[in-house]
Amino acid sequence: MNIYVVMKRTFDTEEKIEINNGVIDEEGAEFIINPYDEYAIEEAIVLRDEHGGEVTVVTVGDEEAEKELRTALAMGADQGVLIDVEDLDEEPDHFTIAELLAAYFKDKEYDLILGGNVAVDDGAGQVAPRLAEKLGINQVTTITDIKINGTSATIERDDEGDVETVEAQLPLVATAQQGLNEPRYPSLPGIMKAKKKPLETIDLDDLDLDEEDVAAKTRTVDRYLPPEKEAGRMIEGGPETQVDELVGLLKNEAKVL
Amino acid sequence: MNFALTKEQQMIKDMVKDFAQQEIAPKAEEVDRNERFPEETFQKMGELGLLGLPFPESYGGSGADTVSYALAVEEVGRACGSTGLSYAAAVSLGASPLYYFGDEKQKELYLKPLVTGEALGAFGLTEPNAGSDAGGTKTKAEKKDGRIVINGEKCWITNAAYAKCVIVTAVDGKDDRGRNNISAFIVPTDTPGFTITSPYEKMGVRGSNTCELVLEDVEIPEDHVLGEPSGGFKQFLYTLDGGRISIAALAVGIAQAACEKALAYAKERKQFGRSISEFQAIQFKLSDMSMEIELARNMVMKAAWLKDQGKPFTLEASYAKLYASEMATRVCNEALQVHGGYGYMREYGIERMLRDTKLMEIGEGTSEIQRMVIARQLGC
Ligand SMILES: Cc1cc2nc3c(=O)[nH]c(=O)nc-3n(C[C@H](O)[C@H](O)[C@H](O)COP(=O)(O)OP(=O)(O)OC[C@H]3O[C@@H](n4cnc5c(N)ncnc54)[C@H](O)[C@@H]3O)c2cc1C
């Protein structure tokens, strides 16, 4: 099986994040593989070990993303591909990324393309579905289980808490939801071996694309952190006084009633 | 000059950090309270290749460098001092001498299981009457009918209850100046007459296994001498030099954990209507703590780097061990002070770090011994 994983390097949302003038301070942030993509990588490795074939992890980003690609290789992926967009003048959006990936996959043979359900940084969940649309193949999002039988897949997907079982034909794009698996730690021998695994860097020219072809459709106007949570207020007294005061506050202070 | 880690070093650090925070940190309180050695943790560490970190692939190791090893020990120590000590002892004291001085057969038989995590390494040097003064070793090894017979007693030997073999030092003759000659022997733990017990109640690193060894007419084959006969003393000095880097890294890890806790607590704790982190007295403590940790870490990295470059590192390893261990005790003590009465309570984990880190000033050469090593290097 030819299994691909589309992976994003993101900042770790569990670490401290600082924003200066609408831009995330990269110096202070910790970068990781998007956790949902980690499920995708794990699943790809498990499926490859079961069915044979190769796992290729593809990312769109800059040179820094090589570290996350190497981590994926250390986990057990066979090769990495960096689509380098460092030279783009404009900030890429989901359209840009999906177009680049679609161009990359145009002449590739693939049975399964896995990705994360969303990226924890912008939470859009757009790239993988857009890619499937562009490639004109099936897509199943938020999967929590996948079994491959020949040319079809039996998939369980998380449907807002319910489980939906889907049969779909390969080739297929599927996005990982929490619960799909428990991603492994890259082992030390894995880390050392990753050094020797192929990691290819390609740019727009290699994909026969001009900057206009992938120009972003959206523009990020501002970014800011949510306001700090303020201390709560206790309402005291008997049930009736409390209800009166609460309704009063909702009407006059919060102005939601 | 280049202070940047390589990609591999950074990845190893990230991986060990993730692993240690997920798998080791949540158990730190429990292993301390119950004096339990977390065997399952070491099994996982073996699977991830951590126990064979600095050894070549040909022995089943991961082939990483000393810098990576120091980073790994720091991260394990940051999660749990006990686990950090057993980890550092397994690699630096248990496995390293086999790798440095063992012949191919010994490596095949005794190093490989350590590297894969099948067993833990242990190194028995200290005796009830020979601590800092290893030259005062009383344990004796005598040749008898083509075998070696060992008699003696060792104390405070880390990991021995989980070892397949212990490297034991013993007097096996006199040198040309009439002084005791000390050699190292590989003693399988299932040899008759070899008794290993864990009778100690320790102040700290209570989740690390510490053993008493009694050897009564323990017979081993002649080819179980480790390295050059009569080179024993030099060998374990070299082993201890390497071990000191790891003890220093461990101290940095424990101090880092304490400092992080103190900073978070200081921001949260309000007195006199303000976070105590707004008081200059507390700020200055935190400034000193984080500065000293970084200084110690830099010294550890330099000593590790020198070792990787094949350059002399005895002096730097002693600097690192001495400064980092004393620094860590200071930092844990101040971190406890920042916590006030809460720091004195077990629940907050700070008192454990203080108890754990105190050992770093004692094990693998006390602070006094480090100062002696440094003075000797200076030419005194
Ligand atoms: C938890 C734990 C784990 C250990 N693990 C191991 C292990 O795995 N393997 C192993 O072999 N050993 C191990 N040890 C032993 C440890 O290495 C010794 O405790 C240490 O070397 C000090 O020896 P000592 O305790 O006999 O102290 P002593 O040598 O009796 O020293 C007592 C005091 O006198 C000072 N002193 C001694 N000589 C001098 C001098 N010449 N000048 C100035 N001051 C001096 C010392 O610095 C110290 O302050 C462990 C110890 C502990 C507590």
From TrEMBL, chain A:
Arranged from A to Z, the UniProt key words for this protein are: Electron transport, Transport
- Kindly give the Gene3D superfamilies that the UniProt entry links to this protein: HUPs
For this record, the Gene Ontology CC terms, alphabetical, are: cytosol
| Residues of the Electron transfer flavoprotein alpha/beta-subunit N-terminal domain | 21-211
Kindly list the cofactors needed: AMP
Gene Ontology biological process terms from the UniProt entry: carboxylic acid catabolic process
Top-level lineage group: Bacteria
Q: Which InterPro entries match?
A: ETF_a/b_N (IPR014730), ETF_b (IPR012255), ETF_beta_N (IPR033948), Rossmann-like_a/b/a_fold (IPR014729)
In terms of SMART domains, this protein maps to: ETF
Q: Name one GO molecular function term.
A: electron transfer activity
Q: Does the keyword Electron transport apply?
A: yes
Do you know which PANTHER family this protein is assigned to? ELECTRON TRANSFER FLAVOPROTEIN BETA-SUBUNIT (PTHR21294), ELECTRON TRANSFER FLAVOPROTEIN SUBUNIT BETA (PTHR21294:SF8)
Q: What does the UniProt function comment say about this protein?
A: The electron transfer flavoprotein serves as a specific electron acceptor for other dehydrogenases. It transfers the electrons to the main respiratory chain via ETF-ubiquinone oxidoreductase (ETF dehydrogenase).
Family, as annotated: Belongs to the ETF beta-subunit/FixA family.
Q: How does it assemble?
A: Heterodimer of an alpha and a beta subunit.
Name of protein: Electron transfer flavoprotein subunit beta
Question: What is the protein's species of origin?
Answer: Salsuginibacillus halophilus
**Lineage of this protein's species?**
Bacteria, Bacillati, Bacillota, Bacilli, Bacillales
TrEMBL record, chain B:
Q: Which SUPFAM superfamilies match?
A: Acyl-CoA dehydrogenase C-terminal domain-like, Acyl-CoA dehydrogenase NM domain-like
Looking up Pfam families in the UniProt record yields: Acyl-CoA_dh_1, Acyl-CoA_dh_M, Acyl-CoA_dh_N
One GO molecular function term of this record is: acyl-CoA dehydrogenase activity
Specify whether Membrane is a keyword of the entry: no
Name the InterPro entries on file.
Answer: Acyl-CoA_DH_CS, Acyl-CoA_Oxase/DH_mid-dom, Acyl-CoA_Oxase/DH_mid-dom_sf, AcylCo_DH-like_C, AcylCo_DH/oxidase_C, AcylCoA_DH/ox_N, AcylCoA_DH/ox_N_sf, AcylCoA_DH/oxidase_NM_dom_sf
Q: What is stated as this protein's family in its record?
A: Belongs to the acyl-CoA dehydrogenase family.
Q: What is this protein called?
A: Alkylation response protein AidB-like acyl-CoA dehydrogenase
Give the species this sequence originates from: Salsuginibacillus halophilus
